[in-house]
Amino acid sequence: MAVLDILTYPDARLKQPSLPVDSFDKNLTNFIHDLEQTMDAGPGGVGIAAPQVNKFLRIIIVDVSPMANMAKTKKRRFKSSNHGRLILINPEITSASGAEVAREGCLSVPDYTANVERPGVITIRAKTVNQEIKNIECKGFEARAMLHEIDHLDGKLFLDRIISTRELFRRKVYN
Ligand SMILES: [Zn+2]
Q1: CA of 104 to the centre of ligand 1 (A)
Q2: Where does the pLDDT of residue 172 fall: very low under 50, low under 70, confident under 90, or very high at 90 and above?
Q3: Catalytic choice (92, 132, 137, 149)
Q4: How far does the centroid of ligand 1 lie from the alpha carbon of residue 135, in Å?
Q5: Would you say residue 173 has pLDDT above 80?
Q6: Backbone conformation region of residue 46, classed left if phi is above 0, alpha if psi is from -120 to 50, else beta
Q7: Is 149 a catalytic residue?
Q8: What structural domains does the chain harbor?
Q9: How many angstroms does the Cα of residue 47 sit away from the middle of ligand 1?
Q10: How far is the CA of 62 from the centre of ligand 1 (A)?
Q11: In a 10 Å sphere around its CB, with 0-12 CB exposed, 13-18 middle and 19+ buried, how is residue 48 labelled?
């Protein structure tokens, strides 16, 4: 188990598209453990994609529970579905509707956040580590996190989706 190094903007490797996973073996499970550890070690990480750690395979992890718990503590409404930890292999968006604008950050873009428009409701089809096919409906924040991570698999960052630089914000330093 290991915490892996994260590629950060403007590293050109973040633009490289990732390939579908075709061998579900021990190497894959080991890598996924490392990817989980790396996400959990990051500041406020609710998602991670394999290419962020220089592995160009279509694997994402999303877990919005920390945000759901935080909203609960602060007695704020959490506008999101919450499936807990999802480890998705070869994810595909099978439907998308609505449009919502919200602030996004990224482990690979430590200095900035931005307002990005994304669909509010999506359906994803993906494989689990056990090669089961799952169809998952996500809403709100969880849908946003999924779309953000799937973008990484196509070599896209949230920075590529900003309509105006007025929507870009310098992040406060993490303490
Ligand atoms: Zn990201």
Answers
A1: 9
A2: confident
A3: 149
A4: 22
A5: no
A6: alpha
A7: yes
A8: 12-170 (3.90.45.10)
A9: 7
A10: 11
A11: buried
